[in-house]
Amino acid sequence: MKSIQSIRRGERLTILILIVFFLGMGVLVWKVVKESSFYMSHSDDVTLGMVYDRNNQILFDPNASTETYDENYFLDVGNVIGDDSGQMTNTLVSENIEKLQNYSLIFGATPHGKTAIYSTLDHKANQTVYNAFGSKNGTAIAYNYQTGEILVCVSKPSVNILDNYSNISELPDGSLICKAFYETTPGSTQKIATTAAALETFGYDGLMSKTYTCNGIYTTKYNQQIKCHDLNGHGTQNIVQGFENSCNPFFAQLVQDMPLDNIIQTYTRMGIAVNDTKMQKIQFDGLSSFSASTKLTDTSDFDTMWSCMGQSEALASPLQMMLWESAIANASGKVTEPYLIDHTTNVTGSTKYEAKTTYGENNIFSAEVASQIKQIMRQNGQERYSSIGYPVGVKSGTAQVQNGASENSLLVGFNDDPNLPIAFCVVIEDRVSGEISTSDIVSTMLNALNQN
Questions:
Q1: What contacts 425, CB < 8 A, 6 or more positions away?
Q2: Side-chain-side CA neighbours of residue 400 (13 Å)
Q3: Could you point out which of 160, 203, 222, 405 has its C-alpha 20 to 30 Å from the C-alpha of 39?
Q4: Which of these, 20, 43, 183, lies nearest to 109 by C-alpha position?
């Protein structure tokens, strides 16, 4: 009897050992399959695939040289697509290098594999917008607010990857980053968020019935002065007029009439970190973008008023400013999530990943408020920006930077046309009157996208 029990214990032990063995093999195989591209990306034998735009134009070629490409061919996408040199991070290539590995578990490294990333960018439109900046620096980003496809992403100054970074120490500041993903002072474009807070506080009819007078300067109860860009004043205005005139005294009085908590609630829903609260960075396709922030303490105080007009400690990324426009343009109150990778292919050319349209989990404001802001922005577009040549809804901004030493010009908005549903944000740094304007660049951009 004891020998039979011993045999059965031995059988159970053998079965247990076999189960553990096969489980271990399964885990090993899974890790090999999952992590093979990582190890190949750190191998001296690695070969990489291409990155293409939406029209199959090459945006990254691991073997690129001036012998095969025009010397400025990659300049417009240098700091957003990047390369495999390791000099830049937060670029499409640097953060997705594993997706470009020409490696197969069966065939190993395949130098002539068909691994590729197909991006949503329109290279021709991107080049046109880049050139439209002329001698000015700044950034422009635009996407389809119905689908989330990023079509244009330009940042100047940029880096020419064909130079092999031989002059890296001489590159102007900002060349190695895509400014569309990093913080900037939003200026009066912030008045969109403040208008949303006012609509949620007073309702549309209540807000429309409010008027405030601008005499050029508004003095707060703390004897602080809020100056208008027109020191002659705009007279008595309602919200539509105050928005069109981008009138600081109007918005100072509007902010003063609102409970602080209402403004903070609206800003927070929009993803703005208020008073040192933490917000997650915006993540897409391995890339990261800065999350907006500001400080609000007292609606009668200059700094809070100034923050609600996009100055003081207010910061936002052009990408996030553009995303807010999708919630307005779609009249849904919900952000259309962005993406830069349309699909990827493996070494055999088979599709491995394919993007799909997604939306933010929560509304940043109600659909009703989104529709009302859209109406106000569309009227501003019709009254002040008809030269763009499209049915746009827009808000401009002038941002004082470098402690007031210079000013950036901004324009955010959307094209209200289902055949060309584009939301955008354009920033021109250190703009001087009489030079290229943000509306000029938006017009150029929409024309370029409309032709492709």
A1: 139, 140, 141, 142, 180, 189, 318, 319, 321, 322, 325, 410, 411, 412
A2: 10
A3: 160
A4: 43
Structure confidence at residue 416 (pLDDT): 98
Question: Which helix (H) or strand (E) is 150 found in, with range?
Answer: strand 150-156
Task: Decide if 70 contacts 100 (C-beta within 8 A).
Answer: no
Q: Of 372, 376, 409, nearest to 393 (Cα)?
A: 376
Query: For residue 389, is it within any domain?
Result: yes
Q: What is the pTM of this model?
A: 0.89
Structure tokens given for 333: 């109150």
**pLDDT tens, residue by residue, 141-198:** 999 999 999 999 999 999 999 987 777 888 999 999 999 999 999 999 999 999 999 9
d(CA 442, CA 255): 30
Number of domains, the chain: 1
Q: Residue 326 and residue 282: Cα distance in Å, rounded?
A: 15
**Residue 199 is part of a domain; what is its CATH number?**
3.40.710.10
